C-alpha cells in the first residue's frame, strides 16, 4: 500500500472515530443520571480545554457537581448542520463567527458571544523526517501535508494564511503547498493526529492543538503578520431549544469570567476579543 493511500485510509478511520460524541472524563459523571444532561456542542479544538473547564466550574459552583455534561466535539460546520437538523444541544461553542452568525440568523441559537481566539502554527512529527525548518520548506516537492477541509474553520484559516504567505514567498507559494496536500481532514484534531503518528510530514493546526501535542511534535511558527485578520474567533451561545437554561447560562458566564479565561490561556488560547 502506498504511503499516500495509507494516509487516506488512516484519515477515514480517524474521521469515523471523531464522529462519535466525546464525553467529559470524570468518573463521577457516570452516575449523574437523575438530572438532565447538559449537551455541549464544541469545536474539535476545544476537546481538551472544555472538560477542564467543567471541572473548574463544578469546583466553583458546588451546587452543580452532580450535573452531567456531555460533549460532542466536531468540526464547526458539522456541529452547525447537526443543530440545524434538530440534534439535542444546549450550548454551542464553535471555532468560527461565520457559523455562529448562520445559527443565530436561522433562529437556532441566542446572540453568540466571542469567548476566545487562536492562531495557526505548522507542526511536524518529532523526528521531522522531511527536515522542514521554515515555512518556505513546505513548498518543496514531495513534502506530505495535511490540512483541514475547506468547509472547516481550520481549513478556511489555513488557506487564508497561505494566501498571506504568498506575499512573502511569491505568487506560486500557495499553489505549491496545496499541491503537497495528501489529506484534507474534517477537523483539526484529525490533522494533529496524522502528524503525531508520522503519516504526514507537516500539518496546519491551531496553537492550542500544538500545545496539547507537547513534545510529540516540532513547530514552525507563523508570524503574526501572516495570520488571518481577524484571528480565529470562537463564539458561544445557548441554543433556542436548550433544556437546561439556568446551568447552561451559568457555565457560559463562567467561560467568559476571569477564572474561565485563565483556563483558556492555560491551554494556549488567546483572550476573548475586546468589543469596540
What's a quick, concise take on this entry?
The protein starts with a helix and ends in a 10-residue tail after the last helix. It is of the alpha/beta class. The chain has helices at 3-18, 49-60, 76-84, 97-105, 153-169, 173-179, 188-196, 207-213, 245-256, 258-266; strands at 22-23, 38-43, 69-74, 91-93, 113-117, 120-125, 145-148, 181-185, 202-206, 217-221, 233-238.
* Structural class by SSE content: alpha/beta
**What number of domains?**
2
Looking at this structure, what is the CATH superfamily of the largest domain? Periplasmic binding protein-like II
Helix content estimate: 25-40%
Number of strand segments? 11
Name the poorly predicted regions.
12-32
Average pLDDT rating:
91
Which sequence of strands runs across the widest sheet? Answer: 1-3-2-4-11-5
Q: Give the termini distance in whole angstroms.
A: 54 Å
Radius of gyration: 19 Å
Shape: elongated
Amino acid at each position: 500500500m502506498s504511503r499516500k493511500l495509507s494516509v487516506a485510509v488512516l484519515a477515514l478511520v480517524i474521521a469515523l472515530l471523531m464522529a462519535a460524541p466525546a464525553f467529559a472524563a470524570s468518573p463521577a459523571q457516570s452516575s449523574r443520571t437523575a438530572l438532565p444532561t447538559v449537551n455541549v456542542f464544541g469545536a474539535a479544538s476545544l476537546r481538551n480545554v472544555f472538560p477542564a473547564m467543567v471541572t473548574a466550574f463544578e469546583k466553583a459552583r458546588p451546587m452543580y457537581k452532580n450535573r452531567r455534561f456531555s460533549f460532542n466535539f466536531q468540526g464547526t460546520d458539522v456541529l452547525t448542520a447537526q443543530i440545524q437538523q434538530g440534534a439535542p444541544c444546549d450550548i454551542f461553542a464553535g471555532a468560527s463567527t461565520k457559523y455562529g452568525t448562520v445559527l443565530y440568523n436561522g433562529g437556532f441559537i441566542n446572540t453568540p458571544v466571542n469567548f476566545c481566539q487562536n492562531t495557526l502554527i505548522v507542526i511536524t512529527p518529532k523526528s521531522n523526517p522531511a527536515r522542514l525548518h521554515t515555512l518556505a520548506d513546505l513548498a518543496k516537492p514531495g513534502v506530505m501535508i495535511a490540512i483541514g477541509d475547506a468547509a472547516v474553520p481550520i481549513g478556511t484559516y489555513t488557506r487564508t494564511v497561505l494566501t498571506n504567505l504568498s506575499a512573502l514567498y511569491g505568487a506560486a507559494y500557495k499553489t505549491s503547498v496545496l499541491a503537497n496536500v495528501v489529506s484534507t481532514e474534517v477537523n483539526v484534531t484529525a490533522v494533529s493526529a496524522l502528524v503525531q503518528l508520522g503519516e504526514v510530514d507537516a500539518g496546519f493546526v491551531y496553537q492550542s492543538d500544538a500545545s496539547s501535542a507537547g513534545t510529540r511534535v516540532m513547530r514552525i511558527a507563523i508570524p503574526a503578520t501572516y495570520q488571518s485578520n481577524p484571528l480565529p474567533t470562537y463564539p458561544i451561545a445557548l441554543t433556542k431549544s436548550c433544556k437546561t437554561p439556568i446551568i447552561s447560562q451559568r457555565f457560559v458566564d463562567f467561560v467568559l469570567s476571569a477564572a474561565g479565561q485563565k483556563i483558556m490561556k492555560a491551554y494556549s488560547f488567546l483572550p476573548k476579543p475586546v468589543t469596540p
